[in-house]
Design a protein that fits this description.
mainly alpha, 0% strand
């Protein structure tokens, strides 16, 4: 029963982070010159089209986001490589670091709203992507099935391929559906925050996402296994 309780708690917390990912990517794409800071598949596609000169798409922003994400994921992998299985003190630390970075960037963006293409906007993009790479590596280490917190393509594939329509048993449909729904709702919330807050929308969005990420880290730490 204890193992099942931990598994359910981990699932709920990772779903919460999936929601924050939607907010972060909406903020990045709509407020930071069409750059994804969590969904690197989207960034690679935007970068490729931008390099081809299509529709004046950005190149530097997506490239910096990719670098930042890789650095964050590498840091997360190194910190957690020798950590105990399950949720440990190090897991709490990496998830908390993601939230703190988002909060700090949010405060900075409230004080000085980033303008598209500016050095400050590129800095925000890079550091936010680093934070999301750290989160992704931490979620990967925790290994909650079907919930990576940053992408849903593989989740959608599993949902369809294992469905009864495809001749499968339909196992895991609830968590997969929730992961897709929460990143969608998160993106909608991020877009609404930008619309409601004007120039300060980027900062508000990152603050909301950061506070939620820190809350996840605190809740996970209270019930950690090691």
């Amino acid at each position: 029963m204890k193992t099942w309780d931990h598994a359910r708690r981990h699932l709920v917390l990772m779903l919460a982070l999936t929601f924050t990912t939607g907010i972060v990517d909406a903020v990045g794409y709509l407020g930071l010159d069409r750059v994804f800071t969590a969904n690197m598949t989207g960034n690679v596609v935007i970068l490729g089209m931008g390099l081809a000169g299509a529709d004046d798409l950005p190149v530097l922003g997506p490239a910096l986001a990719l670098v930042g994400f890789l650095v964050g994921a590498a840091l997360g992998g190194r910190v957690l490589r020798t950590a105990p299985a399950g949720w440990s003190d190090r897991t709490s630390g990496t998830f908390a670091a993601t939230g703190v970075l988002a909060i700090l960037l949010g405060v900075g963006a409230l004080v000085a709203p980033p303008e598209e293409g500016s050095l400050w906007a590129l800095t925000v993009t890079t550091v936010l992507a680093l934070a999301m790479g750290l989160q992704a590596a931490s979620a990967r280490r925790l290994a909650v099935k079907d919930v990576t917190t940053v992408v849903v393509t593989s989740t959608l594939t599993g949902l369809a391929a294992d469905s009864r329509l495809a001749g499968g048993a339909g196992d895991g449909w609830a968590r997969r559906s929730l992961a897709v729904l929460l990143i969608l709702v998160g993106a909608a919330v991020g877009a609404l925050l930008l619309r409601a807050s004007g120039d300060q929308g980027v900062g508000v969005g990152m603050l909301v996402a950061g506070v939620l990420a820190v809350a996840v880290a605190v809740l996970g730490h209270r019930h950690r296994e090691a």
